[in-house]
């Protein structure tokens, strides 16, 4: 069996043709493909606005800055995520506070978050960053109710979940990043994600004010909107200290063709997940799914007692599983700034057992059967 990674991009001829066509066009960056990608992505998730960025980490940083987080202000997130979900708060000089996960969904626990908020005085926290971990949507309606009680904003880290949705109390399907319950959503276009741009990301919102702030900060804090008859086309103003977080037209062209195939890709990911669940039922624990929710399945994570043994066994059989993630509060940087005694037992227990098996649309049935066979052989 050839090498089977835990995730990979799927680049087809239409993707290649779109990039080649853009390479021969007038704009390689700051051109029409960026706006086209933004408009199509906003329509896809159901948000009013989308802002393309060079990666999701930049998107998270822009989100934090556009919401005006100040030095020393506090934000809650999950420890089971990539470090960028927390690091964006630190970039602005804020403090990260971790709430534990639900041991069945692996998502930020609403109950643990509420308990943390209510253990402190009113106004102690400024916001919450829930993560749609592995592609499973957070119930943002419930988090929004909590946020409203305490005057908090919400950034939805939807990097794992384009195409996923949860069903709200009115029976409406709420697509990840649609902005109905979160102030801002952030997506990733890293090659192992659903939509591959090489690198790239998207920030979505329904707020015109936040949209204008995001676009300003994305490009050095510079605008050309205030040109008068006394100025020529050269004129610009730098209104704020911004960043160069732009996505190129080359990447946007690839993103457009990839986006068009995402529904098909998510459907295939769910077919793969169904086969895994049937094979592992009552043998291996995996992420639960609430009725009415749709997991976009960036990952398929299982829990096993001898995780390191299985990891090595799979690698010896050319199956390159991965671990998602080392809890952020245990990383040396966060340990040094005061998280060595954090009580996040669900997250630490999850980490001791978790392993992500291959999950991507081009995974063949034969390859998946091979993965299942090897996992079951090892645990039995």
Q: Any overview of this molecule?
A:
With 380 residues, the chain is an alpha/beta fold. The chain has two domains: 4-261, Aspartate Aminotransferase, domain 2; 263-379, Aspartate Aminotransferase, domain 1 (Alpha-Beta Complex), CATH 3.90.1150.10. Helices cover 39% and strands 15% of the residues. The protein contains 13 helices and 16 strands. The strands form five sheets. A seven-stranded mixed sheet has the order 2-10-9-6-5-3-4, with helices on both faces. It has a three-stranded antiparallel sheet with strand order 13-14-16. α9 runs parallel beside α13 (365-379). The model has no long low-confidence stretch (mean pLDDT 97).
Tags for this model:
single chain; 380 residues; alpha/beta; Aspartate Aminotransferase, domain 2; Aspartate Aminotransferase, domain 1; 2 domains; seven-stranded mixed β-sheet; three-stranded antiparallel β-sheet; 13 helices; 16 strands; globular
Break the fold down into its secondary structure elements and pairings.
Elements (H helix, E strand, L loop, with lengths): L3 E2 L7 H11 L8 H14 L3 E5 L2 H11 L7 E4 L6 H8 L3 E4 L11 H9 L6 E5 L10 H10 L3 E5 L7 E3 L5 E3 L8 E5 L12 E5 L2 H11 L3 E2 L13 E2 L10 H12 L1 H19 L4 E2 L13 E4 L3 H10 L2 E2 L11 H8 L5 H9 E4 L7 H15 L1
Parallel strand pairs: 1-15, 3-4, 3-5, 5-6, 6-9
Antiparallel strand pairs: 2-10, 7-8, 9-10, 11-12, 13-14, 14-16
């Amino acid at each position: 069996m050839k090498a089977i990674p835990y995730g990979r991009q799927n680049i087809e001829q239409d993707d290649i043709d779109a990039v080649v066509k853009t390479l021969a066009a007038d704009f390689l960056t700051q051109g029409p493909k960026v706006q086209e990608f933004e408009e199509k992505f906003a329509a896809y998730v159901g948000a009013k606005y989308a802002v393309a960025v060079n990666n999701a980490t930049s998107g998270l940083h822009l989100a934090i800055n556009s919401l005006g987080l100040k030095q020393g202000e506090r934000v809650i997130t999950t420890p089971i995520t990539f470090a960028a979900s927390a690091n964006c708060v630190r970039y602005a000089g804020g403090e990260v506070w971790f709430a534990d996960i639900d041991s069945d969904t692996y998502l930020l626990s609403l109950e643990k978050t509420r308990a943390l908020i209510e253990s402190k005085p009113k106004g102690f926290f400024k916001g919450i960053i829930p993560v749609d971990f592995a592609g499973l949507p957070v119930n943002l309606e419930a988090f929004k109710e909590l946020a409203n009680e305490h005057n908090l904003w919400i950034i939805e880290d939807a990097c794992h979940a384009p195409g996923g949705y949860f069903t709200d109390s009115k029976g409406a399907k709420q697509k990840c990043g649609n902005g109905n319950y979160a102030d801002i959503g952030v997506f990733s276009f890293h090659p192992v994600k659903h939509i591959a741009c090489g690198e790239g990301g998207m920030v979505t919102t329904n707020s015109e004010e936040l949209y204008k702030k995001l676009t300003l900060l994305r490009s050095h804090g510079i605008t050309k909107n205030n040109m008068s008859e006394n100025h020529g086309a050269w004129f610009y103003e730098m209104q704020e200290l911004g960043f160069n977080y732009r996505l190129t037209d080359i990447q946007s062209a690839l993103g457009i063709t990839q986006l068009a195939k995402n529904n098909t890709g998510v459907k295939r990911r769910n077919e793969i997940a169904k086969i895994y669940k049937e094979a592992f039922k009552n043998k291996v624990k995996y992420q639960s799914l609430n009725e009415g929710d749709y997991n976009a399945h960036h990952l398929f994570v299982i829990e096993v007692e001898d995780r390191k043994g299985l990891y090595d066994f799979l690698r010896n059989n050319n199956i390159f599983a991965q671990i998602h993630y080392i809890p952020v509060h245990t990383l040396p940087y966060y340990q040094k700034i005061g998280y060595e005694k954090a009580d996040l037992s669900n997250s630490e227990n999850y980490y001791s057992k978790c392993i992500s098996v291959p999950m991507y649309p081009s995974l063949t049935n034969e390859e998946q059967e091979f993965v299942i066979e090897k996992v079951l052989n090892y645990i039995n």
